[in-house]
Structures are given as structure tokens and as C-alpha cells.
């Protein structure tokens, strides 16, 4: 089988810029001619094996960065945006989208952002009667989407915060556990931690220097909330510096992102990178073993596995998603080629939706996307009790998965027939950009395909995709 050529000009330029080297200086260090480097940076030539080795040996770079990153996500996001009916007569071919993502990623992001703002403007105008005369009738970017995209394009890995959490956890090993270390750390600053019978998970009184945690919450949730407050108080400068770098467009987005970074610190403290990665590899990513060892919930463990993307020490590239009972995606991240719909729900054929039917059990699934990539997916329901009789229970389902080539590293793949093509269920991203022609669960026609309608014949769908 022919080796796939590696075109990563944008990444190569980014590396050179980071090193503050001219093309001439960079070419000399890589042992290639200036014209050859120029051609590679402009994707006129693939990156040679000699250059890949030079990047690793001369600069100590994690060369997997050349073949991973934003390209697949950008293509997926552009395809979904272009599935909007407004582009019905001007949809560029997939090859053009791939060229844009690899050669001009900044332009691709600008297009995605422009489409997002267009959608919000369109939705605002659709309810103009209600909005007229109000002070907030101006178009604003969604802070939630802005923050979601920030983490999405950082590979859900924030190096400085992750390493700060790992250092904190290392000190905790000397004081008898992460929970007690967090309480002791706050106590040294004069902050008293108390537990009370209340629905509010966490309440911090800065003036009174007291932190109140709900005694109704699970132990893992309590520890997580205490660590989150540690991050907000003791890591404030680091969080603010990271927020400055992100350059959010609104104070609301910045505030949401700060909570997200504090959450990241809490999870990374409970499950410090090096220790957690080694444990995950040792138990072959058994979520229950990891949950018991690190005192974290199944959801926390699954989410943490999807963040193990530290350069030079990467774990398996996982995708992670959480959906509610209506199928709406409430959390999403993918370090794999599988991308999620930016708007709406996930593919109905995905096992994450069936997890609600089998509470307390893991569901395994072998799946194949329209691009021919095969995955193993693990799904389970997650219920979050209010802690008292009559309190509402929040119900979600989570899914964690990776490409099937990593199956040997997962205990959940042991009883699956990986070599049988019929074992793989056909899934997609969302119906409107899915290319499958005979899906029995399709909700809307694909916008990139023509339809053939026979009024005298009815099959699974009332039309045929051509």
C-alpha cells in the first residue's frame, strides 16, 4: 500500500515563526535548499522524511504535530457551514476545502466565524418583533460557542494549566491525598472549608474567607469543587494570562472560559498527567479502575482521557461527547478525525443514544464514518442526583472512543470482531452533511446531493439520494 504523502505547509510555517527563523536560516538547519523549503511551506511539495527527522533531531519537536491538528476539524466545520441552504448553488468541492484548511487555516476559521455570526443574525431577525425596542437587540456572538471553539481548537489541552495542576498534585502526594491537600492549601490562606446540607454545590464568601461545599454531592464532586476553588484563588494569574492570550470578544465569554480553565485545573489535579497516563495504559483504559484509583467519576475520567495530548507524551487520541435525553450535544471534543456537528444533535445511529436504555452498563460499538475510518465507541448513561428526595435528576449519556487501530490498548475491544466488516455500523456527523444514500434513520435530505422522487414508490425514505 502506498504511503500517504504529508502536506503540512501551514504547520511548517508556524514552527518556523515560533522559532523566529528566516526561511534561509530554517532551510540551513533542516539541510534543504531555500526553494525546496518554500515549496514545502506552500504545499507544492510534501514534507520529506529528511525534514521530519531533522525537525525531531535538531529542534526536539513532536513531529506528530505535522499530521494532526486543525485540518480535519476545519474541513468538517466548513462542510457543515456550507450545508446551509444559503450556499445551495455555490458549494465548493471537498478537495477545495481540504486545500483551504491546509494552506489557509486562518481564512477557514474566518469563514466559519462569519457563518456563525450570520446564523445568529438570521435567528435574531426571525424574532425581530420580540426584539424591537430592546437595548439588547444588537447582534452578539454567543459566549458559550466562542469558549467551546477555544477549547476545541486547543485540542482540549492547555499545557500551562495542566502542568500547574500536576505540580499541585505532586505536592499533595506528600500530604495524604489531593482532597486534603486542597483543603489544607486553602486553610493556609485563612479560608475555612465547611460542608453543609444544601443544593448549592459550591459557595465561596471572599469577605468571610469561607468555602461551603454541599454534603449531598458525591465525594468525587466535592473534591472537584474544592480544587476548582483552589484554581480560582491560587492560580488566578495563570488563568488570567491564558484568557489574555485567547482574546475573547466579550466579558461573558471570558468569564465562562475562566470557569472552564478552573474546571480543567481541577480535573488535571485529580488525575495528574504523567501518573494518570501511565495508569490508563497499565489497565488498558478501564474507566472503572481509573475511577476507583483516582477518586473521580466515570465522566471525569472519560473527559480526562480526551485531554491527554501533551506534545512528546501523547495518549491515545480519543473523542469525548456528552448528550442530553433530547440528543443535544452538551460537551464535545475530538482528538481524532471524527468531528461533531456544531449545531443540533449527533447521528441517531450512534450508541450514545442507546445508553439511556441500559442504565449502569457500558455499551460497545464498532462504527464506520462515510470517509471509511473505523472507530470503537464506548457509551454509558450518567445520572446526577440532586441529593434529596424530590430533587431533579439530571440525566446524560457520554461516549468515549478512538480509531479502531488503537483497539488493542482498550480492554473494551477484547470481545469484538474487529476484522469483520459487517460488525461496523454506518454512522455520520449530521444528516444534512452525511453522504450516505440509504440510511434508515435519516431525518433530513443531504444538502450536497440531488434527490429523486418517485410518487408511485415508497421505500424507507420518500426519496432517493443521487
Structure overview:
The chain is an alpha+beta fold and 466 residues long. It has 17 helices and 11 strands. It folds into 3 domains: 9-66, Orthogonal Bundle (434 Repressor (Amino-terminal Domain)), CATH 1.10.260.40; 157-313, no CATH class; 316-429, 2-Layer Sandwich (Beta-Lactamase). The longest helix has 22 residues, at 105-126. It starts with 8 loop residues before the first helix and ends with a strand.
Poorly predicted residue ranges: 127-139
How is the biggest beta sheet arranged?
6 strands, mixed
Q: What would you call the structural class?
A: alpha+beta
- The count of helical stretches stands at 17
Number of strands: 11
Percent helix: 40-55%
Strand order of the largest sheet: 5-4-8-7-6-9
Q: What is the domain total for the residues?
A: 3
Summarize model confidence as the mean pLDDT: 84
Query: What is the 3D form?
Result: globular
Strand content: 5-15%
Radius of gyration from the alpha-carbon trace, in angstroms = 24 Å
Order of helices and strands: HHHHHHHHHHHEEEHHHHHHEEEEEEEE
- Distance linking N and C termini: 31 Å
Features:
Beta-Lactamase, globular, 434 Repressor (Amino-terminal Domain), alpha+beta, about 475 residues, 3 domains
Amino acid at each position: 500500500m502506498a504511503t500517504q504523502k504529508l502536506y503540512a505547509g501551514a504547520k511548517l510555517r508556524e514552527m518556523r515563526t515560533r522559532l523566529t527563523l528566516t526561511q534561509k536560516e530554517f532551510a540551513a538547519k533542516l539541510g534543504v535548499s531555500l526553494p525546496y523549503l518554500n515549496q514545502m511551506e506552500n504545499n507544492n511539495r510534501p514534507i520529506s522524511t529528511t525534514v521530519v527527522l531533522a525537525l525531531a533531531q535538531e529542534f526536539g519537536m513532536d513531529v506528530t504535530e505535522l499530521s494532526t491538528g486543525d485540518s480535519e476539524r476545519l474541513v468538517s466545520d466548513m462542510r457543515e457551514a456550507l450545508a446551509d441552504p444559503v450556499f445551495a448553488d455555490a458549494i465548493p468541492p471537498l478537495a477545495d476545502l481540504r486545500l483551504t484548511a491546509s494552506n489557509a487555516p486562518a481564512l477557514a476559521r474566518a469563514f466559519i466565524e462569519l457563518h456563525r455570526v450570520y446564523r445568529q443574525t438570521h435567528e435574531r431577525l426571525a424574532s425581530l418583533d420580540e426584539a424591537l425596542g430592546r437595548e439588547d437587540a444588537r447582534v452578539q456572538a454567543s459566549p458559550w460557542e466562542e469558549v467551546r471553539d477555544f477549547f476545541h481548537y486547543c485540542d482540549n489541552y492547555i499545557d500551562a494549566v495542566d502542568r500547574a495542576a500536576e505540580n499541585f498534585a505532586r505536592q499533595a502526594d506528600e500530604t495524604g491525598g489531593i482532597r486534603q491537600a486542597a483543603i489544607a492549601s486553602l486553610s493556609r490562606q485563612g479560608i475555612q472549608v465547611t460542608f453543609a446540607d444544601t443544593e448549592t454545590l459550591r459557595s465561596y464568601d471572599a469577605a468571610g474567607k469561607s468555602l461551603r461545599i454541599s454534603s449531598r454531592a458525591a465525594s468525587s464532586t466535592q473534591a472537584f469543587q474544592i480544587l476548582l476553588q483552589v484554581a480560582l484563588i491560587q492560580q488566578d494569574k495563570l488563568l488570567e494570562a491564558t484568557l489574555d492570550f485567547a482574546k475573547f470578544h466579550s466579558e461573558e465569554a471570558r468569564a465562562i472560559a475562566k470557569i472552564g480553565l478552573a474546571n480543567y485545573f481541577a480535573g488535571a489535579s485529580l488525575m495528574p498527567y504523567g501518573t494518570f497516563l501511565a495508569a490508563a495504559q497499565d489497565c488498558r483504559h478501564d474507566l472503572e479502575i481509573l475511577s476507583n484509583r483516582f477518586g473521580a467519576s466515570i465522566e471525569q475520567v472519560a473527559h480526562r482521557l480526551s485531554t491527554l495530548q501533551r506534545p512528546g507524551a501523547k495518549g491515545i487520541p480519543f473523542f469525548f461527547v456528552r448528550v442530553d435525553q433530547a440528543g443535544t450535544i452538551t460537551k464535545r471534543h475530538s482528538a481524532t478525525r471524527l468531528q461533531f456537528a456544531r449545531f443540533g444533535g449527533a447521528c441517531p445511529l450512534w450508541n450514545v443514544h442507546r445508553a439511556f436504555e441500559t442504565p449502569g452498563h457500558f455499551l460497545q460499538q464498532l462504527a464506520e464514518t462515510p470517509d471509511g475510518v473505523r472507530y470503537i465507541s464506548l457509551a454509558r448513561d450518567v445520572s446526577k442526583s440532586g441529593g434529596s428526595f424530590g430533587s431533579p435528576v439530571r440525566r446524560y449519556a457520554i461516549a468515549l472512543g478512538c480509531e479502531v487501530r488503537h483497539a488493542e490498548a482498550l480492554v473494551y475491544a477484547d470481545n469484538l470482531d474487529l476484522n469483520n466488516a459487517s460488525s461496523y455500523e454506518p454512522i455520520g456527523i449530521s444528516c444534512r452533511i452525511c453522504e450516505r444514500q440509504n440510511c434508515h434513520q435519516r431525518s433530513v435530505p443531504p444538502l450536497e446531493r440531488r434527490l429523486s422522487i418517485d410518487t408511485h414508490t415508497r421505500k424507507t425514505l420518500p426519496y432517493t439520494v443521487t
